[in-house]
Amino acid sequence: MADAPLRILLVDDHAVVRAGLRLLLEAVAEFEVVDEAADARDAVFKARRHNPDVILIDVLMPGTGGVDALADLRAEAPDAKLLMLSMEDDASYVRRAFSEGAHGYVVKDAADVELVAAVREVAEGRRYLHPQLGAKLIQADNEQRDREAADPLSEREHAVLRLLALGHTNQEIAGTLFISVRTAETHRAHIMQKLGLNTRAELVRYALERGMLDDAATS
């Protein structure tokens, strides 16, 4: 008995794109496109109806985007593998898609053979990400680590540090930033720990060296 075909649901708001994808996928003997959907709502309905093996879904669509629909698709077709298809190769899109439960991510201008390979990979339980996208993720992560190493403080901690360097007490900082005194004290402790500083004089010097008090006279 021959193996059952791999059942695929196509989701894209452009009919021409769906038609091209159907032709490509149905040219593969073991693939079967069971249905198409033009938006996320229809995709969820058809995922429930067909329970496909793979859902190939566009990241950006009018209304609810593909990434935002992933939770509902997982609920309606828990066994389906979710393969994102997008013009976007930005690392933030890729990271968010995987965090929401995607199993693969492929760009629309990928070669036909890559798309077919991606469908097979996710269907077999493996993640798929084009090597160039993987390299972008690594680069973005490295850049984020570099930024954090150069300046480990959050935006709120910057505000607290500036007020501390200007001589404000924890009570005054709490009132200025609309936080509790305990929160202000916690921020101060975290700042000292992150920067490896021990005294207010060291905090002032750190703030001065980074120009954080340049506009103190006019603020």
List the helices and strands and how they pair.
Elements: E1 6-11, H1 15-26, E2 31-37, H2 40-50, E3 54-58, H3 70-76, E4 81-86, H4 91-99, E5 104-107, H5 112-123, E6 128-129, H6 131-150, H7 155-165, H8 170-177, H9 181-195, H10 200-209
Parallel strand pairs: 1-2, 1-3, 3-4, 4-5, 5-6
Helix pairs in contact: 4-6, 7-9, 7-10, 8-9
Quick description:
This protein is of the alpha/beta class. It has two domains: 6-142, Response regulator (Rossmann fold), CATH 3.40.50.2300; 151-209, Orthogonal Bundle (Arc Repressor Mutant, subunit A), CATH 1.10.10. Helix content is 53%, strand content 14%.
What is the strand content? 5-15%
Order of helices and strands: EHEHEHEHEHEHHHHH
The neighbouring-strand order within the major sheet is 2-1-3-4-5-6
List the domain count as a whole number: 2
Number of strands: 6
Architecture of the largest domain in CATH? 3-Layer(aba) Sandwich
Q: In CATH, what is the class of the largest domain? A: Alpha Beta
Overall 3D shape: elongated
